[in-house]
Amino acid sequence: MSDAIRYERVGDIAVLTAQNPPVNALGVDVRKGLLSGIERAEADGAKAVLIYGDGRTYFAGADIREFGKPMLDPGLPDLGSRIEASPLIVVSAMHGTALGGGLEIALCSHYRIAVPSAKMGLPEVNLGILPGAGGTQRLPRVAGTEAALDMITSGRPIKAPEALDKGIIDRVTEGEPREIGLAYAQELLDAGAARRAVCDMPAPEMIDFDTRYDAVLKKGRGQISPATALRSVQAACEADNFEAGLKRERELFMELMNSDQRQGMVHAFFSERAVSKLPELKGVTPRTLAQIGVIGGGTMGAGIATAALLSGLKVTMLEMTDEAAAAAKGRIEGNLQGALKRGKISQDQFDILTQQSLVLATDYAALAEADLVIEAVFEDMSVKKTVFTQLDAVCKPGAILASNTSYLDVNEIAACTSRPEDVIGLHFFSPAHIMKLLEVVVADKTAIDVVATGFALGKMLNKITVRAGVCDGFIGNRILATYRSCADQMILDGASPYQIDAAMTKFGFAMGPYAVSDLAGLDIGWASRKRKRAAGMDPRARDSVYADKLCEAGHFGQKTGKGYYVYEAGKRGGTPNPEVAALIEANRAELGITPREFTDEEITRRYMCAMVNEAAKVVGEGIARRPLDVDMTLLFGYGFPRYHGGPLKWADIQGLDGILADIKTYAQEDDYFWQPAPLLEQLVAEGRSFDDLNKGSN
Length: 698
Known about the structure:
- By secondary structure, the chain is of the alpha/beta class.
- 50% of the residues lie in helices and 11% in strands.
- It is built from 29 helices and 19 strands.
- The strands form 4 sheets. It has an 8-stranded mixed beta sheet with strand order 12-11-10-13-14-15-16-17, sandwiched between helices.
C-alpha cells in the first residue's frame, strides 16, 4: 500500500483513507494507493469499500505538480474504471471539496454521501481542458444532460444540497465523513443493496447540441474548452456504448491538451498564485491595518471604501463638504446594497458597516489615528501634493500614506512629505470593490514593510496584487497608452474604430479599445494627452487630434450619450457615431495621409505587437519584475483574454522571433514608435522565452 492511502478493515468494510495533505490531491502515490486498496479489499473478503479523505477534504482535484507532465500509471481514467468495475459495493464519503478528478473518482463509486458543506464540481474548462476521467460521460447519466452541461461548461462548483437535488450524490448527512460513510456502507450491506455502476446506467437524453455549441462558444468569447466539453457530453448521449463515449472523451481531451489555449490558461492559473509571492517580502512583517482613511468619495474612492469595509476594516471617508460626504456615503451604501442583494452580506452586516464601520469627515484631523490613508482625488500633481502635505501634518508616526494615482510620479508625491519611506502607490481599478487588480507602486524610498503592508491589504481585499515601479502609467496604463497609440495610428492610416473594436473582440476581449474609452470616459484620455503635450512631445511622435474634437464638443462617451458610439436610453450598447468618420478624415487631410485598407488579422497583429513590445520594455526596465506580473496586470485590469495567458505568454506561444521580425518591418514606416525592446531582442538572440525569465525568478 502507498503511504498516501491507509487501509483498514471495519467488519465487512474495507476503509481507504486518503492521507495526502493539504488537499489529498490525486497524485501518483494516491492513485497507486487507491488501486492497491481496491485489489486488497477484493482479495481479503471485504464486502464493501469506503473511500474518504483525512483532514479537511476529500480529493480536491489533480496534483498541480503533475500539470503538463505525462501521467504516471495508474492514470486517473483507468483507475476510475477499475474502481467502478469492482464487484464490491464502493462508497465515497465527501467533505471539503471534490473537484475535477476528485468528483470523477466519486462518480466511479457506486454510492455517494456528503456533509452539507461539501462542494463539488468539474472546473477543468478553467484550465483549458475538459474532464478527462469519465466526468463528461458519468455526470450526465446521474444528473441529466442539462445539469451536467451547466456544471461542465461553466466549471461552477455546487454545494452538497444542490448536488443531492441533481442526483449527483445519494445522501447529505451531518457528521464526520468516516462515521457517516461507515454507517451508510453498513446500511447498504444490511439492505442487500446491489452494486450501482454509473457506466451501466442509460445514456442521457439528447438536446439540440449544435445550437447549444454555438451559444457556449459565443459566451466564452472564443474560449474553446467549454464548447469542446459540450461535444464530449454529446458523445455520452450518442455513442453506441459507454466505452465508445469514454474513447471520444479521451480524444477531445487530448485535442485540448495540445492546444495553445490550454498553455495560456495553465500559465494564468500558476501566475495568479505566484504574482504576490515576492522574494524580498519573505519574513517581512506588514504594519498593523485596522482602520484606514479614504480621501475623495467619488466612484473610485467609494469603491475603495466599500472593498475595505467588506474586508472588515474601519473606514473614515474624508470629503471637503458635508454635502459631498453625504453623496459619498450614498455611493458606498449603493455598492453595499449590491452585496446585500447578492447574499454576500446580511441586513445586520449592512447596518453595522454603514452605521458603525464607516465614519464621514470633512476635517483632516479625523485621519489622525488611521493606519493607512488612500487618496483618490483628482489626477493632478498640485492637488495630490496639497493632500499629502496635509496628511504629513496630521497622520500618526508609522501611518502609511498611499496615492491611488493612475499615472503620476509617486517619488514626486513622496518628496513633499517628511516621511517618504511611508509613501506608496496603491492603484485600484474602477469599480474598486469589483475589479480584482491592485498595482502596488513602490517608490525609491518606500520602506519594505510598507510594501509588505500593501500586499497584505491586497490579500485582505481579495485582490490580485502586482508590484510595479515608478514610471508614467506604471505597468498597465503605460502599456495601455502604447497599444492605444498603435490603434490611433492605424485609424489615421485607414482603419476605423469600429473595425479595430470588432477585431479585438474577435481576439477575445469583451470590448474593443474604443468602446472601452466610451465606457471609461473620453475626458480621461483627453486629459492625459494634454498633460503629455504640455510636458513636450518628441517631434517624431505621430499625434492624432480627432478624439480631442469629440471632447471639445462635450462628447465623453456613455456618460454623455455620445462618443465613438451613440447611446440611447433603454438600449444596450451603442451604434457607431456618424460624426467620427468626418473628424478622422479631416485629421488625415491635415496630416496629408492617404488612407489604406487593413485586414482584421493585420490590426490584431500590430495591436498585439505594440502591446508585447512595450511590455518587454516594462520588464526590461524593472518596472515589472517578471513577465508574469505584466500578464496578470493585463488579465485582471484590462480584460485580456485569460485563455491567451497574458500578452507575454501569448508572445511566447506565437514565437518571439516572428514578433520581433514584424516590429522591425513596421519600423521601416515609423522608426520612432516601433523601436524594438532591448529585452525582446536579447531573448530572440539567446533563443529564450519570457517564461524562462519567470522560472528564473522563482
